[in-house]
């Protein structure tokens, strides 16, 4: 058990620290679809950690690859030097992502990937002789991590309002419409919302806009699925006005939607794709930005001398050897165990069971795609975000880890989940949701 001094020492991320420290929820082990708590319980993990351990916790191949790497090469500088694992993993990721996304830049998280993609897009236009193209367009309820760029293009209000002005960015509406409530998979209404991009472009003029950044499916704001044709329409408008399209696939990358990537599922090609989470199955922090040849070649033009990097950007831990070893092992698991197919095979059952919760007290919407779902709850009349929090706390006591946001519960279990485990998630929720006020 942790001491009070230890509990007080850590300032926890995205946590109500004071409440947590009175009633801590501590995880000491994990295997398959379960977390092990410090009071000796097995807790079913309905969110693959934070959407990142999608191939199941504790994969021995990944653990062994990390241990072996730590013994041979613990760290290598990657500024003007390199090590084999980073090139090998880059090739794997390039070959897995849609053709045309050809060059992989490593980061250490989804947030770093978002900010890297934003800087890459802005630098690209300078190199193309259009330095005024700096503006970014994101979406309301979009989530691109917590660094300054990602917070600016993101659209989750509580994540922004503490911090005052951010980078200049405009936002399209979220594709949440009342007429789409309880629709399954791609919602039928809302294609017209893509046309807002035309309005924003007319307002700002395309000569000032660098890129549009969207998640092919928004996860963190509560699984917001794009209407049919929506992403294709954004792509067409970006093409028409010479604007880059960035897909943030930190959460959708490597199987979550039942396809390898959102770009594959929707058959829409972004210019830049961000990745993280499943790239190492969550075992070591890592992110990546995959750029088209067109973007990469713009940087490689001209004759900068060897001592001047083409892209003045990178992290001490970009392509860290342990992360690359974990990544290579995770990509083996992804391909050999056909993880995207497993997600696609379980998705219809998952959808069926989750939608059985539609008639429960407080439930106002359910959305899902692949192995992702959100159950939206009516706000508590006095304390807006209270219900999802209270439900999640009660679920933990009953042996289920479920993540909550201000108005919804999110489900994104490992793709290796079995039907009876899906049933357990749903029956604990069925019992618990109506218990709260
Ligand atoms: N982008 C998206 C789409 C995400 O879902 C997340 C994490 N939920 C991030 C960025 C941020 O990733 P990280 O927490 O690794 O910085």
Automatic annotation (TrEMBL):
Cofactor(s), names only, from the UniProt record: pyridoxal 5'-phosphate
Gene3D superfamilies for the chain = Aspartate Aminotransferase, domain 1, Type I PLP-dependent aspartate aminotransferase-like (Major domain)
Q: Does the keyword Transferase apply?
A: yes
GO MF terms listed in the record are: pyridoxal phosphate binding; transaminase activity
Q: Give the CDD domains listed for this entry.
A: OAT_like (cd00610)
Q: Which InterPro entries match?
A: Aminotrans_3, Aminotrans_3_PPA_site, PyrdxlP-dep_Trfase, PyrdxlP-dep_Trfase_major, PyrdxlP-dep_Trfase_small
* Keywords from the named record: Aminotransferase, Pyridoxal phosphate, Transferase
Keyword RNA-binding appears in the UniProt entry = no
> Which Pfam families does the entry link to?
Aminotran_3
In the record, the note on similarity to other proteins reads:
Belongs to the class-III pyridoxal-phosphate-dependent aminotransferase family.
Which PANTHER family does its entry note? Answer: AMINOTRANSFERASE, AMINOTRANSFERASE CLASS-III
UniProt name for this protein = Aminotransferase class III-fold pyridoxal phosphate-dependent enzyme
Give the species. Spiribacter salilacus
Q: In the record, what lineage is assigned to the organism producing the protein?
A: Bacteria, Pseudomonadati, Pseudomonadota, Gammaproteobacteria, Chromatiales
């Amino acid at each position: 058990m942790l001491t009070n001094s230890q509990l007080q020492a850590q300032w926890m991320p995205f946590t109500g620290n004071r409440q947590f420290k009175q009633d801590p929820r501590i995880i000491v082990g994990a295997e398959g679809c379960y977390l092990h708590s410090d009071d000796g319980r097995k807790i079913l993990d309905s969110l693959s950690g934070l959407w990142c351990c999608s191939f199941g916790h504790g994969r021995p191949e990944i653990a062994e690859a990390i241990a072996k790497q730590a013994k041979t090469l613990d760290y290598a500088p990657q500024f003007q030097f390199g090590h084999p694992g980073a090139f090998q993993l880059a090739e794997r990721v390039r070959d897995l992502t849609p053709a045309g996304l050809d060059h992989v830049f490593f980061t250490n998280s989804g947030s770093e990937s978002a900010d890297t993609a934003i800087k890459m897009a802005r630098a690209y236009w300078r190199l193309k002789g259009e330095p005024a193209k700096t503006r970014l367009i994101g979406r309301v309820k979009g989530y691109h991590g917590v660094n300054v760029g990602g917070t600016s293009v993101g659209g989750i209000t509580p994540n922004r309002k503490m911090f005052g002005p951010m980078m200049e960015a405009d936002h399209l509406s979220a594709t949440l419409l009342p007429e789409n409530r309880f629709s399954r998979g791609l919602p039928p209404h809302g294609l017209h919302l893509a046309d807002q991009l035309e309005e924003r472009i007319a307002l700002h003029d395309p000569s000032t806009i660098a890129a549009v950044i969207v998640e092919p499916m928004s996860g963190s704001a509560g699984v917001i699925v794009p209407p049919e044709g929506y992403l294709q329409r954004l792509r067409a408008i970006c093409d028409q006005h010479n604007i880059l399209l960035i897909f943030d696939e930190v959460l959708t990358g490597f199987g979550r939607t039942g396809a390898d990537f959102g770009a594959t599922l929707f058959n829409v090609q972004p210019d830049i794709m961000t990745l993280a989470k499943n790239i190492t199955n969550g075992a070591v922090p890592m992110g990546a930005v995959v750029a088209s040849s067109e973007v990469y070649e713009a940087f490689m033009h001209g004759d900068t001398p060897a001592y001047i990097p083409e892209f003045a950007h990178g992290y001490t831990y970009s392509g860290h050897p342990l992360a690359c070893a974990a990544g290579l092992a995770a990509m083996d698991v992804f391909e050999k165990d056909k993880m995207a197919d497993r997600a696609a095979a379980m998705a219809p059952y998952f959808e069926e069971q989750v939608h059985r919760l539609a008639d429960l007290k407080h439930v106002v919407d359910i959305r899902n795609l692949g192995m992702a779902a959100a159950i939206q709850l009516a706000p508590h009349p006095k304390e807006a975000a209270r219900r999802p929090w209270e439900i999640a706390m009660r679920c933990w006591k009953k042996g289920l880890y479920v993540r909550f946001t201000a108005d919804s519960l999110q489900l994104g279990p490992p793709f290796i989940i079995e039907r009876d485990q899906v049933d357990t998630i749903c029956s604990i929720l069925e019992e618990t949701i109506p218990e709260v006020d």
